[in-house]
Amino acid sequence: MPSILELAYLGDAVYELYIREYLINNNPGKMKDIQKLSLNFVSAASQRRILESLINSKILTESEVDLVRMGRNAKGGKSKSTDIITYRYATGLEYLIGYLYLNNKDRLKIIMQYIWEVK
Q: What percent of the chain is helix, strand and coil (3-state, nearest 5)?
């Protein structure tokens, strides 16, 4: 089994791919506009906001919230562009995405659908 940080790394890539696919399919237009829209999803601040919404709306199960905590509390790098709390929340979301990608793609799709709706 990959480490927490490895799954967060995978989750970052998977999350970005899902977001890019969604934006391209739902917002045809200029690439600069699509890139600008992607910031509503992929910046650390956006990921923190999205994660807090997932938790507060009770979309995540208890075990998924536990996974987020594990990812959030993992010892890892630091961000130059955001505070450590926001960075760790983003890492928690990325870990959850990576974990679900390997273990439960159906659940990942449900969570991603919610993310697209709340943007």
A: 80, 0, 20
